[in-house]
């Protein structure tokens, strides 16, 4: 059975069962709509990390031992003056209690001035004296406040629970990822809800004299989720822009409506499918519906344009629908399949959130093949339109012929040479600039949110007032076969050496390790004398220095066989992390022994380092895979390596330019921007496929390359430009998103969508001028 | 495909870079230089326990056997050449500008004969587990190192060999001695005998007497260049960490909970000097203008302009712990402690009594202690 016969069969089936199919589509759509209402926002920690990366395996292995990176810090600051007043203390106490009972908070881990684990110790003539920083009898009297002030000075709390300048105090809490319910059930902590409760606490305690600053993974995720909700506005904006452009373009309300409905349908189907498959929507995949809608519109435009042209040529609605179905089905389906493939390639990235983006996008496009290629012709076949409306529109179309004439001159060798030369220069500049592309994040705070977001401002405030590390790279010193490893002088000494080594690496702010703290404890036992800040050789003395250090510090596990070294980094930029990780590896190469081994990585910067490495690796794999996949698809379609090269080179150039644009805009290569090239190329290839499909036909008719290209542009060009403009504007609206990564993606995708169109119209024919022989048939 | 070519180029470059780094697969000397200039980052994180000054050079010792020196009043520092893998050093002493001595944990004793640029180990006893805390030389040949648990080492050959002995030899008759000792000294609450008390500092006074201060109020003096020692009745049961002689000969000792005591050169009796702060005082020096500086935990710096009769607190804008103080730039002191060394500008001398002379030239030798 050849291709034409297959298309005929599908066509017969579609047009033979128009009514039935319409009903089926309607019912399916309603069912999916019902299912879509079950869609949940789902943004867990595990989804965002490369779980298969070696660092993450260590992370997971030690997660339960040392506690994950899942903590929150809520700082209350006094505007003017210090914290030693009754109003502040009363508020802090109430806030501490409220946080303590918050669902999801691990109660014993809560630390603040008002928790019993906040103590002070002082050296006195007889030995030690100590107690709670805030006495249980605290009433807020001036004497009480003076007592607290004195105790804070003696405690180790300055910079931890009390601000360096005494202008604020902190409540820190560890979170439970799962909340135990009756009957042994575990409920996953809903960060979004949790974040909302934190906002309620903020609203309650913030006042003219006090401000409340909240940071922590859960809060960040909550803020990201609420930022992602803003996407709905952008969807609305994009929808309106598209509708207006569509109306202007097709000059007919009915046609516009049909195209929009058909473009919306795969979005609805997709949203309905996700809950069935057990997926939720997350801040990254929430962008997919846009993309599907835009792609849907673009394909609908191609179909309606062809249909219009046939109606103007005198066919009936039904016959015109059949003809356009026959001519669009192959390139359209092929283009969509290529999209599916392009999006499927994204699944190579071993990070669930990106994988789900790939799955979601592929699925959406797959649905589009059914809705767009089947439903649209059926709807069009029912449409009756006056020839004059359409005639007017076609007449208007001839106005752009001038453009097509110019464009088709690109196949002249002289012009082609100039264009290729320009492209080569752009490629050179692009490659040069693309080398500045950094893996990881620029800036400080949470990279998903904008620098001026409340969260990142809170982050900056807390970091400036407290000496707490918000960016922590953890390294686990795992001992083997050493009994009581943390009283072993040799083991402790090598870890202490590592502590000092890392302190000297650029990008380290501070290091916290068991031997580091034990030294200080040892000095404490020796009257606080700095000259005793040395690890004792005697195991019993060492034990005395280690015993006061609880496992909840995250510095050691209960049997002391694993000790975590926490390296607080100055920032989270990719270069910083890479340097730190390299030095950890350098050190461990020299000092790993049969007794102790240093393992990367824990802490949030451990996750970031793993993610960066995964992204760096996936970057090349994905580029090979996407271009490999497109190469095969184009080869199968056009059976010509020359045609394939004509289509792919413009795409490759635009990809390089996109990578060059990123560093210029301060956008790093990360989980969210990595899929951009695959998405951009996967969608951008449509232009080339649609064009080449027609060029091939016209060349077979014996026309010159210039004439073939001109005709192809007349048939497909306006729709291409329209598509590029609507898609560019559609994703361009993301630039307004509260989420930085959505804004980054929007800008980059808009850039790629538009440039790919230009590439197809100008560079593709220029390449064809050299690669395709005018009278030779590219297809066998 | 161009992207493939680009990828190939980058891949080759990466492979080359990787090969280069894998050859160099060891601790990065750039991160931790064995000697030479030290980064600001290293110097603000390095624990320093003691400092000495002669001429323009400040030499400080500290954590992990680090010996560092500065010829720019603490502006920039270099690491001296010293044996690797040493523990925390606790004290440094320059009897003359050429010759320096440093002591520390594992009972290490180090010597330099080139103004502190290179150091050699002269003695160590790691298994003893008794850190040395201070060292003094009475002349070219004879010197003493004191330390924890009553450790007392002496040399008579310029530090080539060291011999341990008791600070105060027990009387001949053992039984009587025990009884006598129990009567003479208040038994400490941790059950340590008087002989086992940490000896924290040893200094040579202008008249040639030697003075030791230490744990639980220990004060001992020697009038015969260290051959024999006698205890001085202690005014305090807490520990002393340092001692210094003011220009007028007054001896000031300081220690736990901000305690300061002062005696005249005869050391007949120590009287408490008022200090409202309870932060432990670790280090002391006499500045060229005669001011006495004491430093300690919680960022404490006390200055006396009247040879130690009264002290005023000076703001150091930190709560970091300091262990030693030495002259810095004119009108400034260099404080060393848990976060390296830092410069603190000294408040101008009070003008009321015409007592404070203009800052003189830096002292010729280790004016510390």
Walk me through what this model shows.
Chain A is α+β, with helices and mostly antiparallel strands and 780 residues long. Helices cover 62% and strands 10% of the residues of chain A. Chain A has 25 helices and twelve strands. In chain A, strands 2-5-1-8 form a four-stranded antiparallel beta sheet, sandwiched between helices. A four-stranded antiparallel beta sheet of chain A has the order 10-11-9-12. A two-stranded antiparallel ribbon of chain A has the order 3-4. The longest helix of chain A has 36 residues, at 603-638. Helices cover 10% and strands 34% of the residues of chain B. Chain B is globular, with a radius of gyration of 23 Å. At the A-B interface, helix 17, helix 20, helix 21 and helix 22 of A face helix 1 of B.
Topology (elements, then pairings):
The complex is a heterodimer of chains A (780) and B (369).
Chain A: H1 3-16, H2 18-36, H3 54-66, E1 71-78, H4 86-100, E2 105-111, E3 119-124, E4 127-132, H5 142-154, E5 168-175, E6 178-180, E7 186-188, H6 191-205, E8 210-216, H7 217-229, H8 231-250, H9 253-277, H10 288-312, H11 317-345, H12 352-381, H13 387-397, H14 401-408, H15 413-434, H16 454-465, E9 472-479, H17 489-503, E10 508-512, H18 514-525, H19 539-546, E11 562-569, H20 574-591, E12 596-602, H21 603-638, H22 641-664, H23 674-700, H24 705-732, H25 740-771
Antiparallel strand pairs in A: 1-5, 1-8, 2-5, 3-4, 6-7, 9-11, 9-12, 10-11
Helix pairs in contact in A: 1-11, 2-9, 2-12, 3-21, 6-7, 8-9, 8-10, 8-24, 9-10, 9-12, 10-11, 10-12, 10-13, 10-24, 11-12, 11-21, 11-23, 14-24, 15-22, 15-25, 17-20, 18-19, 20-21, 21-22, 21-23, 22-23, 22-25, 23-24, 23-25, 24-25
Chain B: H1 2-23, E1 36-37, H2 40-43, E2 48-54, E3 57-62, E4 67-70, E5 78-79, E6 89-93, E7 100-104, E8 109-112, E9 120-123, E10 132-137, E11 143-147, E12 152-155, E13 163-164, H3 174-184, E14 199-204, E15 210-214, E16 219-222, E17 230-231, E18 240-245, E19 251-255, E20 260-263, E21 271-273, E22 281-286, E23 292-296, E24 301-304, E25 312-313, E26 322-327, E27 332-337, E28 340-345
Antiparallel strand pairs in B: 1-5, 2-3, 3-4, 4-5, 6-7, 7-8, 8-9, 10-11, 11-12, 12-13, 14-15, 15-16, 16-17, 18-19, 19-20, 20-21, 22-23, 23-24, 24-25, 26-27, 27-28
